[in-house]
């Protein structure tokens, strides 16, 4: 079986981890090809893992034409899309390539452009249209699948598949204080660590949790916010902190 995976190439966080692990191990049993629509850290990281990776950054129309030729010449059996740009590309490719086109829904698409009304109106709307055009949708959790059902997607074309965990790596044992010390944090017994797992709605979750903890008697000195892996969080979090919902300090 041959599967071609499409993704914008600018993804970070959970989607990046999911695609890397999926293609790394899926490639051991079938033929996979990853196509990114921009070069950079994502494409370089995938190639470093041994994943067959190609960058198509010629522009939307040129990329669409190149993908049609690539899928036909490579005789791929399935087109697998990840993210809004790939979903739109897959929806436009579907009839011409005559193979099933599916998408992995990594998050709630209504929250993907939180705080960016123009992007939500344009890219968000196109993504919703594209998702309805595809043959099947794979959701990364049961709650996301249920949300799509509630929004009118056909239940028999929705599947939940959780990302697998690699237990082959041995994680050295360490205590809580020593672990956070490597990031420059001094953590005492009873302190609460709130970590951001995603940009956008992840920040909202952080602020909500902090508010609840403060109501529960925790002082700001005992709350720590941990921001790892994305430089724009330095700009996003202070804006969220200034909201009247809560005050969070390092």
What does this structure look like?
The protein is an alpha/beta fold and 250 residues long. Helix content is 43%, strand content 16%. It is built from nine helices and nine strands. It has helices spanning 13-26, 41-48, 60-74, 84-97, 117-133, 142-150, 176-181, 201-215, 233-241, and strands at 2-7, 31-36, 53-55, 78-82, 101-105, 136-139, 158-160, 192-195, 223-226. The strands form two sheets. The chain has a seven-stranded parallel β-sheet, sandwiched between helices. Strands 8-9 form a two-stranded parallel ribbon. Helix 4 (84-97) runs parallel beside helix 5 (117-133). The longest helix has 17 residues, at 117-133. The relative contact order is 0.10.
Give the topology.
Blueprint: E1 2-7, H1 13-26, E2 31-36, H2 41-48, E3 53-55, H3 60-74, E4 78-82, H4 84-97, E5 101-105, H5 117-133, E6 136-139, H6 142-150, E7 158-160, H7 176-181, E8 192-195, H8 201-215, E9 223-226, H9 233-241
Parallel strand pairs: 1-2, 1-4, 2-3, 4-5, 5-6, 6-7, 8-9
């Amino acid at each position: 079986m041959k599967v071609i995976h499409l993704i914008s190439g600018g993804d970070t966080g959970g989607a990046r981890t999911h695609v890397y692990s999926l293609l790394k191990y899926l490639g051991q049993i079938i033929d996979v090809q990853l196509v990114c629509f921009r070069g950079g850290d994502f494409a370089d990281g995938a190639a470093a893992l041994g994943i067959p990776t190609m960058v198509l950054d010629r522009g939307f129309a040129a990329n669409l034409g190149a993908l049609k030729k690539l899928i036909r010449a490579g005789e791929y059996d399935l087109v697998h899309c990840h993210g809004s740009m790939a979903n739109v590309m897959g929806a436009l490719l579907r009839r011409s390539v005559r193979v099933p086109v599916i998408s992995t829904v990594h998050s709630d698409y209504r929250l993907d452009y939180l705080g960016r009304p123009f992007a939500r109106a344009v890219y968000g709307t196109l993504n919703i249209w594209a998702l309805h055009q595809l043959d099947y949708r794979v959701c990364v959790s049961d709650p996301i699948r249920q949300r799509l059902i509630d929004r009118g997607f056909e239940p028999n074309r929705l599947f939940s598949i959780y990302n697998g965990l690699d237990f082959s790596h041995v994680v050295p044992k360490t205590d809580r204080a020593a672990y956070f010390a490597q990031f420059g944090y001094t953590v005492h017994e009873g302190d609460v660590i709130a970590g951001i797992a995603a940009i956008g709605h992840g920040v909202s979750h952080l602020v909500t949790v902090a508010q609840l903890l403060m109501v529960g008697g925790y002082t700001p000195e005992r709350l720590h916010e941990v921001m790892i892996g994305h430089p724009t969080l330095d700009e996003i979090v202070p804006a969220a902190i200034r909201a009247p919902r809560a005050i969070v300090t390092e």
